[in-house]
Design brief:
Distance between the termini: 78 Å
Low-confidence stretches: 147-154, 302-312
Helix content: 40-55%
Radius of gyration: 24 Å
Mean pLDDT: 87
Largest sheet: 5 strands, antiparallel
Shape: globular
Order of helices and strands: HEHHHHHHEHHHHHHHHHHHEEEHHEE
Structural class: alpha+beta
């Protein structure tokens, strides 16, 4: 047997994706879009308008090139993001029901990128992965039907450069993060997860309960590290072994969602893992829950609308090849195998998969914004309550949501964001109160983590700002 033929025989089954997995991916993609838009809606004024905490002038100052690329930067009013959010939600619904999946995914991709470019400050790894999965969805046959067959049947699986790219994209998240963690110190000691659960600005719900379960967290440290190191088995294994490994990753992400405030990251991670469930899994689901699998079938198959099953194959293969090359290069830069070009700003370099790597943060932090009113009274402009610089019982409650936490964490190192934030806090208060704010201070309070002793709170004044 010729070597290239043997390589093909080995590779194709490992990049192939079951058609039912593609259908489940399409539905999950649409649902994730709806959840993402719903979570953004509460902060539409704060994060996507000129009257918010990141006006277009500050965006352009921070990102001179990217700042003008978003169509949402055309206007500073609230009407444009409202339209973009509404259209994105409609595209998500279209994906859920299977109406022209490729067109719907294309519209969703353009709109989501536009929304993300309008405020890159609030993005985390989940947003980055979501954007990339949407890109790869354009190169996948999301609207095709399927038939039940044996695990090796060509009729149940699809293997193309697009499936290779999306599989590699999901795998890159775990491999890159695992390599970064192996360079740390605390993961090797078995204490990294203990430190993670001491980050009270992140922990919620189950995380607050198990934070003191030392032996359980040490075991969790080694299990998660083992999963990351063994993540290449997601493509090497097949059948029940792969199903078990995928289930372990899904369980880990569910635990993250129940323990930490991470936004859409756990949900998007599970979305990517759907593609790895093998044909045997879907056959078992179809035997026990045939209606559930049948519900994944597109309501409007692509063939019924006259659209071709394969869309510009040459272009598709070219884009997939370029995408695969980009994954390899970007992740090689992220782990230090390839040096980033000289002069590349830190915020442009791809560090998307460095979650708690090489080591977790060793401090809990939160903000206070003592403001002086015209009457001489003082109030916290962030909470709109009396100033209290003592440690809150639930630090995570100091942040309305994960995006605010991300925004305030970046503001710690960006003076221009702090100026815009102070202006926004002043306007928010003054619009609804007769006793206006004259000056607002921004203070960050940090508590270093000590697993074996008492912890003290330090204060750092980041700036004082006069209200216009």
């Amino acid at each position: 047997m010729r070597p290239e033929f043997a390589l093909r025989q080995w590779l194709v089954p490992r990049i192939a994706i079951d058609r039912r997995a593609l259908a489940a991916f399409r539905v999950s993609l649409g649902l994730c879009l709806l959840v993402d838009i719903a979570l953004r809606c509460s902060d539409i004024t704060a994060f996507y308008t000129d009257s918010g905490a990141l006006p277009r002038s500050t965006l352009t100052e921070l990102y001179p090139v990217l700042g003008d690329m978003s169509p949402l930067a055309v206007s500073g009013g609230v009407w444009l993001p409202l339209v973009a959010f509404g259209l994105t939600a409609l595209a998500g619904l279209a994906l859920v029901v299977g109406y022209r999946p490729r067109l719907s995914a294309g519209v969703a991709f353009v709109l989501l990128v536009s929304i993300q470019l309008r405020n890159p400050v609030v993005l985390n790894a989940g947003d980055t992965l979501f954007r990339r999965l949407l890109f790869w969805s354009l190169l996948l046959p999301l609207g095709c039907g399927w038939g039940k067959g044996s695990p090796e049947s060509a009729s149940t699986r699809v293997a193309t450069p697009g499936t290779a790219g999306v599989v590699l994209q999901v795998l890159a998240v775990y491999v890159t993060n695992g390599l970064m963690k192996l360079r740390g110190a605390y993961w090797h000691r078995g204490t990294a997860v203990q430190y993670v659960f001491q980050l009270d600005h992140l922990t919620v719900r189950v995380g607050d309960v198990v934070a003191g379960w030392g032996p359980v967290l040490v075991l969790g440290n080694w299990l998660w590290l083992a999963l990351l190191v063994g993540s290449p088995l997601l493509v090497i294994w097949s059948g029940r072994y792969r199903t078990g490994l995928v289930a372990a990753f899904v369980t880990a992400h569910v635990c993250m969602a129940l323990s930490f405030r991470l936004g859409v990251f756990p949900l998007v991670s599970i979305l990517g893992l759907v593609l790895f469930f093998p044909p045997s899994f879907w056959d078992a689901v179809a035997d026990r829950r045939p209606a559930a699998v049948e519900a994944l079938r597109p309501r409007w198959p692509e063939s019924a609308t006259g659209a071709p099953q394969i869309w510009f194959p040459t272009m598709t293969y070219s884009l997939a090849t370029l995408g695969i090359a980009a994954i390899i290069v970007l992740n090689a830069v992220a782990v230090g195998f390839v040096a980033a070009p000289t002069g590349t700003p830190d915020r442009i370099e791809d560090r998307s998969w460095n979650m708690f790597a090489p080591d977790p943060a060793l401090e809990t932090w939160w903000y206070a914004a003592p403001a002086t009113l015209e009457s001489g009274n003082r109030v916290d402009a962030l909470t709109q309550e009396p100033v209290n610089l003592s440690r809150p019982s639930e630090v995570a409650d100091r942040f309305p949501n994960q995006r605010w936490k991300k925004f305030l964490g970046t503001a710690r190192h960006e003076p221009s964001i702090r100026r815009s934030l102070a202006t926004y806090l002043c306007s928010q208060w003054n619009q609804s109160h007769d006793d206006a704010i004259e000056r607002v201070d921004l203070i960050i309070l940090t508590e270093s983590t000590n697993l074996n002793g008492s912890e003290s709170v330090d204060r750092e004044r980041l700036g004082s700002y006069q209200c216009a």
